[in-house]
Amino acid sequence: MFGDDASLQRTLSALKRGPVRFYRDNVIALDEDVADYLLFVISGVVRSCKICESGTRSVVSFYLPGDLFGWTGPKLSLSIEAATDTAVLFIKRRGLLALASRDVRVANVLLTATTNELARAQEHVLLMSKSAKCRAATFLTDLWVRLGKAKYLDVPMSHQDIADYLGLTIETLSRSITVLERSGLIARIPSQRRLLLQNHFGLRRVMN
Amino acid sequence: MFGDDASLQRTLSALKRGPVRFYRDNVIALDEDVADYLLFVISGVVRSCKICESGTRSVVSFYLPGDLFGWTGPKLSLSIEAATDTAVLFIKRRGLLALASRDVRVANVLLTATTNELARAQEHVLLMSKSAKCRAATFLTDLWVRLGKAKYLDVPMSHQDIADYLGLTIETLSRSITVLERSGLIARIPSQRRLLLQNHFGLRRVMN
DNA sequence: CGCTCATTTGAGGAACTTCAAGGTCAGTGG
DNA sequence: CCACTGACCTTGAAGTTCCTCAAATGAGCG
Lengths: 208, 208
Prior knowledge:
The structure is a homodimer of 208-residue chains.
Chain A: H1 5-15, E1 16-22, E2 27-30, E3 37-43, E4 46-51, E5 57-63, E6 68-69, E7 79-82, E8 86-92, H2 93-100, H3 104-127, H4 132-146, E9 153-154, H5 159-166, H6 170-182, E10 186-188, E11 194-197, H7 200-207
Antiparallel strand pairs in A: 1-8, 2-7, 3-6, 3-8, 4-5, 4-7, 9-11, 10-11
Chain A binds a DNA duplex (30 and 30 nucleotides) through helix 6.
């Protein structure tokens, strides 16, 4: 079984639902739902976040096109939401697991996806005990890398989302970005949302 | 193959090396080594941590007896160290993966271990944007749960380790614990290292 | 006891948050 | 074409939390 890619493709197609489109700030799933489905991002940005009893929100992770995720345990009760307009694929978890037990390539994809997500979560932990300036610089540089190192960085998510991801207020984030700009490390051309990372060496130094 | 637990046990035995004992603060592995081995904690506490260029240390995770870990990607370059005197098992990664592809039980153990580690990392991220008092209360309560909800909580790792895990200074951690004590939520009986969590409801409230 | 190391406590300063106001930009309707 | 609106971002000033530095206290051990 699955001796050729074509039959693998057919089996995968049978497991997926979508692409489903969501508008910005729509809830895609609560993580009770994610117990049954993995998500694959086709376009746009997805965030997983948590609202505390105190009303404060934390963004745990951003997922970009090509990311496969949904391993988060149900006890965290995270909410999966569209950070921009998005399209995502829902993939039956049990079906994919069964497939993985028969096809090593599938198993490797799942293992790689999970390991990557763990590594990113650990880097996130490390980031949270750095200064605001360092957090902002690291976030922008990482995002630029994840989006393919294009000439300009079009930041797709709102500053509020970024601030909640970095554990800062939106004001502190704004000030930090302004400091980076005044230091000549980045520039905003021509508008807010489009950034040019000018001095990668300097950014690396700020990132520690 | 592996139709019975006995043959599974034999195969597992062939993959493991140890138990190996380490004294407190010994380096168990750098994560280039962890690329080849998974670690299983027999006794004591293991920490994974990172020293920045600036000299500051962060503890990414603590592993307790029964924990299986080592999925961290090599690009983080974490150091795996003994937070107390410990005994650990080294398990050949490739061998265990091969085993997992043939035995669903093994695959499930690996998946569960990885998912748990991811969930803990995400909770850690959430924790880092809370107040010092909340972080301390959450850490102590979680540790108490992970250690089996014994009557007394014998904190096994140093305050410095805990502070580096929580992204606080050792002084702020100490003050936070003192505040919890003065609020009657915890008590130190009879010495520093042994704590009694007195008011679980109150602790839950501080944890938010 | 007298050493060392770990933890606690205090006072002052730095970083971040809060609250409040001003600015920018895209969309809408006159 | 221009003013109006609302969402989003930026800036300023005051307040809070946490950090830094310094010293004191406590625990463990020869």
